[in-house]
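Entry 14. Two folds queued back to back today. First construct below, sequence then structure tokens.
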Amino acid sequence: MQQRDSTLHARPGFDRPRNERPFSPRRDFKPRAAKGHDALLKDLQESGAPVRLVLSTSGNAVIGKIVARDKFTVSVLRDDGSEFPLVIYKHALETFEQIGKAPSAPQGQPE
């Protein structure tokens, strides 16, 4: 049986198996700065200030401190002594506001 010359049909860059090609990212990853309401949520999270979040579905208010957030959710540690944070989808929020001052650093320690 005659062997075919594989170099006749080879295309540039495809002469190696796929898993042996060098990795080249399409673009450099740069974290984006928070904008708009996300910037406000970020400031509230970093300051540890108490906040009131009103849910659009029921009108109920949740009071606590923002402990985490991402593109779609906000996690709030409630002031009622609960051990675990409540995760709220951002699209379910009607309003949010700071309701008190952020805790200050203890005396003798830098802020």
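Second construct, same run, same settings:
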Amino acid sequence: MKLRNVERMRNNTIENMANEEESLDDKIKGIVRKVYLADINAIRNLFEVSKKLQSDGLEIPGDLKVKGKLIVEKDANLESISVKNLI
């Protein structure tokens, strides 16, 4: 027990004290704030990615696998091409 509580018990007095610990409302507000800040950061990151995609295009430094059709509406530049199992 905290020292103040011990002193009050020794004097045989009962006092309703404000809870010195973090209240449930404050805990909930803290958790909501963390989630909100995480969402804001995710939105900022997506904004940066979208700006780069629109201005510089998309560069994928590794392999790219497409399940389905690849449709190119404008020009396509291929530095080298290898085709397997062409029917």
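Quick look at the second one. The chain has a mean pLDDT of 79. The first helix runs from residue 3 to 10.
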